[in-house]
Structure formats: C-alpha cells, structure tokens
Amino acid sequence: MARIERMDQSLRGRLDEVEQKIFLLKITYEKYFSGLERVEPYRDREEMRRTIREIAESGIKNATQAFKFQGLKARFQIYELYWTRNLKMMEAGTHPKMRFRADSKAAARAAIAAGTAAEERLSPEQELVLRERQDRMEREERAYKLVFDKYIEARARCGQSTELGFDAVREALVKQVRQIKSTYNVESVKFRVVVEDGKAKVKAVPQTAQ
C-alpha cells in the first residue's frame, strides 16, 4: 500500500510539471507566431508528446489523476491543432501576421513614394506619425488574434467546429466595434469569450472612460 501511495505522489508532481510545460509551450509558440522568437519550439513539443505518451502507457489507477491527465492531454491536442494550422499558413505565406507585416511595409513604401521624391526620405515627424500608426495597428491585430485564439479554444472544448478563418472573425469583430462606438459613444470596446448553453460566443463590452 505504501508503494502505491508513493507512485501516486510521484505522478501528481509529474502531472503538475506537464501542466506548467504545456502553458510555457503555448506562450513560446505565440511568441514564435508573433515574430518574437526566431526558432519554433519543435523539440519541446516533441518532448511533450513523448511525456504524454509515456504517462498514458504507464496506466493511471487513481481516478482523480486519470481525469486530470485526460484534461491535460485534450488541452495539448487542441493547442497542437492550432499550432499545426498556423504553421501551414506560415509555410503558404498566408499567416495573418505575415500578411499584416507585408501590408504594413507596402503601405510605408507607398507613403514614401507618394509623398517624397524617389530618393528622398520622410521627415522625422512623418516617420514618427507613420511608426505610431503602425504600432497602433499591430496592437489592434494582436488583440483581435488573442480573442480569436480564445474563441477557437472555447469552441473546441464545446465540440463546435474550429474551421474558422481569422480574417472572417476579425472582420466581424471590427464591424461590432464600429457599431458599438457609434451607438454608445465610447472610445474603446473589449471582447469576452463565454460559453452559454454549451456554445462558445464572443461578447463585446463597451468601455467608458474612467
């Protein structure tokens, strides 16, 4: 009996470690997709696959621990679907981040070409305005992407289809923002992902000035 108890305690620590590593892996992949990390954390992902496979093959006798393990395994599988989809888009050059960067660079080049001579650079003031505009657009893009990721994850947990395009969802959210700002006369809108009646939804919340 004492031996079984020690095995349970060891497994509990291992499951806690798996949960933490999955969380860190998710953050690392988000940095990679955002361009903050140059190298995909492929080895860490492979190591997590092996760890989950080893735990599954070892057999878990404790019902509580088995339930927790199944939850961690399902979470990792959801993340893997998301990572794989994003990697494929990056390979095809259709990833939203890549397109956004390309569009931003093209817009900057167009602005320079339209407002200055062929070899003339923008003034410091113009460069500052352009940079601030690009920073604002990138912040908005990250915010929409975060809502989209949470929405897809919630739909996966609810058993709903996750075959949704980021561009289509973002367009719908942008439309909501415009309508809410106009209706409620507010400067900003925040989104919350909720589950109601077993279905994932995105709710817009007007933000009034403090």
Summarize the structure.
The protein has 210 residues and is mainly alpha-helical. The protein is 73% helix and 9% strand. Helix 1 (2-34) runs parallel beside helix 3 (63-92) and helix 4 packs antiparallel against helix 5.
Structural topology:
Blueprint: H1 2-34, H2 42-58, H3 63-92, H4 96-115, H5 124-157, H6 166-184, E1 188-196, E2 199-207
Antiparallel strand pairs: 1-2
Helix pairs in contact: 1-2, 1-3, 4-5
- Uncertain regions spanning at least 5 consecutive residues: 1-7, 116-120
Question: What structural category do the secondary elements indicate?
Answer: mainly alpha
Number of distinct beta strands: 2
Total helical elements: 6
Shape category: globular
Mean pLDDT: 80
Major β-sheet strand ordering: 1-2
| Cα radius of gyration in angstroms | 23 Å
Order of helices and strands: HHHHHHEE
Sheet with the most strands? 2 strands, antiparallel
Please state roughly what percent of the residues sit in beta strands, choosing from under 5%, 5-15%, 15-25%, 25-35%, 35-45% or over 45%.
Answer: 5-15%
- CA(first)-CA(last) distance: 60 Å
Number of domains: 2
User: Which bin fits the share of residues in helices?
Assistant: over 70%
